[in-house]
From TrEMBL:
Region (Disordered): 24-55
UniProt feature, compositional bias: Basic and acidic residues: 32-46
The protein, known as: Uncharacterized protein
Organism listed in the record: Pseudovibrio ascidiaceicola
Assigned keywords, A-Z: Coiled coil
Coiled coil recorded as keyword: yes
């Protein structure tokens, strides 16, 4: 007997395949018609195509010759059978998915009863054919050639009905598009209003208008528009009609939000004009008292330079407002207020008439003088600006703190002008609002400190979590010495351990510097790196 040429492993595998397929000494596979009466075969019923001859079933002819040959033949037959079943299964899944998608599309797109009924016929046929497929396939561990032929024919039948369903769907889409076209004037009118109104947003931001309400109204008005556009692209007349019923009032609300915001433009313009005029008036009034600084030439020079800056910049700010350049006017106003504030500080520090009162002790039981209150608030402003770098490094909403600082400085500048001009009552009225702003600054500072403390707690916890995994290095190294895969995982572990330590050191340094935002970033990166470290360590232990 000739040798098979198979390795022991191949022979063992082939025997297992033969056992599974219930085959022995297989030499060839032939169809039944070569060993059966054709007349008898033709009498077999065809479940798929009634009236046609029944499917021919395959059978295996057994021979006791040539072990190597029958093993090779069995292996090839098993491979081909597996490929055929896999192909059949894949096609079944693909057709089932296509049928589901087709049905979902039809639910959106079909409008008329005629199209819906025609489509239902195809869907029912698809469903029934799948049921036939499952009935023929279920319970058979190894379908024979005849059954496989039946199954293929059933899937061909499913494909046919899917194609017919697509034809119905195409007709339905064309009808739906025609109905959608009739609704397009309403859609376009809504779209034009929403889009044209939104174009004014840049204008609002340029004039320093808070667009929170405007943006919210736009989101509410724009969502139905997006859904209508989706319905149109899906050929879904029903979806479009539904959304058209939901847009009532949304367009009008958005237009009103814009009108309200537009009113703020005029208010901001008028307020900026008034602030420019007032800053110039206060600076001019204070400049008249320049002789009180003559005993301090250096202070007088700075005082005069600050005034000249206000005097020359104010016309430029007014010109910017008249041309619609609010941002340019606002920048000039900010610089002018800073120059006026500098003039006031120089006057309080050096003017002869300003001496004496500030240093006088306050008698117990008597109210604190307005000037002393203003002085305390001025000191609070200086401290607030000193803390600004810390706040920016610790709070994501640091812009709120910076805005409060500017508000405090603007109002304080006005209060100091009142105080210098002798309008004590006017200055006193500004003290309470100034203290409220100072309280907001204190509150934000407290939040920034809490943020640093919170990140520090996270780092401490993360270090505790990491310590047990970092301490396993010696054991993991010992395990890795006996396996190549484990050695590769250990190298990755070593690298990641270094990354973990670097992230921890970076976070600790940022915490020490009071930079909570950067510290949080390092902690998050350290957490991600630790997860990779644990994964590498687990791989080593599993190997």
């Amino acid at each position: 007997m000739p040798k098979s040429g198979l390795t022991p492993e191949q022979k063992k595998w082939t025997d297992q395949v033969l056992k599974h397929l219930n085959l022995k000494n297989v030499d060839e596979v032939q169809l039944d018609e070569t060993h059966s009466d054709n007349t008898e075969h033709d009498k077999r019923p065809n479940e798929v195509n009634p009236g046609q001859p029944g499917a021919r079933r395959a059978r295996v002819l057994v021979s006791k010759d040539s072990t190597a040959a029958h093993q090779e033949q069995a292996a090839r037959a098993a491979t081909e059978f597996k490929a055929e079943i896999t192909q059949l299964s894949n096609r079944y899944q693909a057709l089932a998915t296509n049928a589901q998608k087709l049905d979902a599309q039809a639910r959106k797109q079909l409008v008329t009863k005629e199209h819906i009924d025609l489509f239902k016929v195809q869907i029912e046929k698809i469903s029934n054919t799948f049921k036939q497929f499952n009935k023929n396939f279920s319970g058979q561990q190894r379908p024979d050639a005849g059954t496989i032929s039946v199954l293929k024919t059933l899937l061909d039948k499913v494909q046919y009905h899917i194609t017919e369903g697509k034809k119905v769907l195409q007709q339905g889409c064309e009808h739906a598009d025609a109905m959608i076209a009739k609704e397009m004037p309403a859609v376009e009118a809504y779209q034009n209003t929403v889009e044209d109104t939104f174009k004014h947003r840049d204008e609002l931001t340029q004039w320093g208008v808070d667009t929170t309400d405007f943006d919210k109204a736009h989101r509410i008005a724009n969502l139905p528009l997006l859904r209508m556009q989706k319905a149109i692209s899906d050929h879904s007349y029903q979806g479009l009609k539904f959304m058209l019923g939901k847009i009532a009032g949304k367009k009008e609300a958005f237009v009103k939000a814009y009108d309200d915001a537009k009113e703020q433009i005029e208010k901001n313009k008028e307020e900026a004009q008034q602030q420019l005029d007032k800053t110039l008036a206060d600076a001019t009034s204070l400049n008249k008292r320049a002789p009180e600084l003559e005993h301090s030439p250096e202070a007088l020079t700075q005082f005069t330079a600050a005034f000249e800056k206000v005097a020359t910049s104010t016309p430029k700010g007014q010109q910017a407002l008249s041309t619609g350049d609010y941002q340019g006017a606002a920048a000039i106003l900010h610089d002018n207020e800073g120059a006026l504030f500098q003039m006031q500080q120089l006057w309080f520090s050096n003017a002869t008439t300003a001496d004496g009162e500030a240093d006088q002790p306050i008698e117990k039981g008597k109210p604190i003088p307005t000037r002393k209150k203003i002085e305390n608030l001025r000191r609070a402003l200086e401290q607030a600006y000193e803390r600004l770098p810390f706040i920016k490094a610790s709070l994501p909403n640091a812009h709120q703190y910076e805005a409060e600082c500017k508000s405090l400085k603007t109002l304080l500048t006005s209060a100091q002008s009142d105080l210098i001009s002798g309008r004590i009552e006017d200055a006193e009225e500004k003290v309470l609002p100034l203290r409220k702003i100072r309280f907001q600054l204190y509150s934000l500072t407290h939040k920034a400190k809490e943020q640093v403390q919170w990140v520090e707690k996270q780092l401490t916890q993360l270090k505790d979590d990491a310590s047990s995994w970092l301490d396993r290095r010696k054991d993991l190294k010992l395990i890795s010495q006996s396996d190549e895969n484990a050695r590769q995982s250990f190298d990755a572990y070593e690298k990641e351990a270094e990354n973990v330590r670097n992230h921890f050191d970076s976070a600790a340094g940022h915490i020490e510097s009071g930079k909570a935002i950067q510290a949080q970033k390092s902690v998050d990166e350290g957490m991600t790196s630790l997860k990779r470290l644990i994964s590498h360590a687990s791989d080593i232990e599993l190997d």
